[in-house]
Design goal:
Blueprint (H helix, E strand, L loop, with lengths): L3 H4 L1 E5 L3 H12 L3 E5 L12 E2 L1 H6 L2 H4 L4 E10 L5 E13 L1 H15 L2 E3 L3 E6 L4 E5 L3 E4 L1 E4 L8 H4 L8 E10 L4 E5 L6 E7 L3 E9 L5 H14 L9 E7 L3 H6 L3 E2 L2 E3 L15 H16 L5 H9 L1 H16 L1 E2 L2 E2 H11 L1 H12 L7 H22 L17 H6 L6
Parallel strand pairs: 1-2, 1-10, 2-6, 4-12, 10-17
Antiparallel strand pairs: 3-5, 4-5, 7-8, 8-9, 11-14, 11-15, 12-13, 13-14, 16-17, 18-19
Helix pairs in contact: 2-5, 2-9, 9-10, 12-13, 12-14, 13-14
């Protein structure tokens, strides 16, 4: 039998953004929360960009006194090398992931969650509780939340393991230097992109690509070649790699994320945009939806809330992803046309800016593109024959210095 204290206990395995935010939300609702993580705050190769949409949803992130950089300039580079720079109407806040995770863990602790630095190696379901085991200790809890990333060891116990077509590899370096420009570079044959995200005193340089298409070693080689071409010295910098979910639409629809006495949030549940790799909005969103379900004593509502608020966008992104990275439009690749129209059309630049901000979702993207297509084509023709409207290519980073088929294919515009 569980005592009254244990009957009110929720165990969270994983202290990243999803786990930490769930811990804070549940502790604020007077639930006893145990959060386990063997590393606590740690760094990742991802850029750490937080969109305007995320900042609107969780304003405390914008107000946090932690290491971040506001970026309002972006550059897109096509596989051909064509590039366009443009301003973002809503700046992106780029955080150090170590600083962001540390801030969210501190917030969970201040809310009343108990943070335990330990590695959980075993979960066992008893009649009415979970037995949770580390190498040296054990605990009991009425409910378990898995927030330990895509490669956590408990997927096979509770749900189904992800397979390579549902995974994305990332690799990167943190390169000393300063910049005010966020860069995204597309390459032919890469189902992903290279990013250069400026942070306070360095640049997060990385690459992502589908696991089944390129090995981690191949991605690293592609990244290093591109960094060398840009004149960025990476050889003495620390290398990072990480695995992200990039689920196919059918996987999002079929693979369970919750069950009797358990649920998964964030990367562990596969809730990452499979087109862009952006996951912070979905990490925080899934944590909040699960907390709402648990506080209302209706844990079964979690799956319904995901279906209503998160999964439709991710399923659309999954369906659009292949077309965006490998499709063609008007006789050219979608990637090339995306950069071309960003350079030539103010209407398209506004659309791209809204996608970066997260305020333009996938569900009504097709309608907006169809509505603005005539203006977009006219603006592009005027700029092609009457002068270019886009900005000149921004300065490189330097160390130490601050038709139905057409309309259908363009749905994959980068977010």
């Amino acid at each position: 039998m569980l005592g009254s204290r244990e009957a009110n206990t929720i165990a969270i395995v994983g202290g990243g953004p999803a786990g930490a935010h769930a811990a804070a939300s549940l502790a604020q609702a007077d639930r006893r929360v145990l959060l386990f993580d063997e590393k606590l705050a740690w760094e990742k190769p991802c850029g750490g960009g937080i969109t305007h949409k995320t900042l609107l949803g969780w304003p405390f992130l914008g107000q946090a006194a932690v290491d971040r950089k506001w970026v309002s300039e972006c550059e897109l580079i096509a596989p051909s090398g064509r590039r366009v720079g443009f301003g973002l109407e809503s700046p992106v806040a780029i955080f150090s992931r170590c600083a962001l995770n540390g801030f969210l863990l501190d917030r969970a602790a201040r809310s009343g969650a108990e943070i335990i630095r330990d590695r959980i190696v075993g979960l066992k379901r008893a009649a009415n509780h979970w037995q949770i085991r580390s190498l040296g200790s054990s605990w009991k809890a009425a409910y378990v939340v898995i927030a330990a990333g895509v490669r956590n060891p408990f997927r096979q116990l509770l749900s189904r393991p992800f397979v390579p077509p549902d995974l994305m590899s990332t690799a990167g370096y943190f390169i000393p230097g300063q910049s005010n420009i966020m860069r995204i570079q597309f390459l032919a044959g890469l189902h992903g992109y290279i990013w250069l995200f400026p942070r306070r005193d360095h640049v997060s340089a990385g690459i992502c690509g589908r696991m089944q298409a390129q090995s981690a070693a191949e991605l690293r080689r592609i990244l290093e070649h591109s960094l060398a071409a840009l004149g960025l010295a990476y050889r003495s910098c620390q290398f990072y790699s990480h695995l992200l979910p990039a689920l196919r639409a059918e996987t999002l629809r079929r693979v369970p994320v919750s069950g009797d006495g358990w649920a998964m949030v964030g990367d562990a549940a596969g809730l990452v945009d499979p087109l862009t790799g952006e996951g912070l909005y979905y990490a925080l969103g899934s944590a909040e939806l699960l907390s709402q379900a648990l506080v209302s004593n209706r844990p079964d509502r979690y799956a319904d809330l995901l279906r209503r608020h998160i999964l439709p966008e991710l399923e659309l992104a999954a369906e659009m992803s292949d077309r965006f990275y490998a499709g063609r439009w008007m006789g050219e690749s979608v990637l090339e046309r995306t950069v071309q129209f960003t350079a030539g059309s103010a209407s398209f630049r506004r659309l791209i800016s809204d996608l970066f901000a997260g305020t333009q979702g996938y569900r009504d993207l097709r309608r907006r593109v169809y509505r603005t297509l005539p203006a977009m084509l006219a603006e592009s023709l005027v700029n092609r024959f009457g002068g270019r409207a886009g900005k000149a290519a921004p300065e490189p980073i330097s160390a130490g210095k601050e038709d139905e088929d057409n309309e259908e294919q363009i749905r994959g515009t980068v977010a």
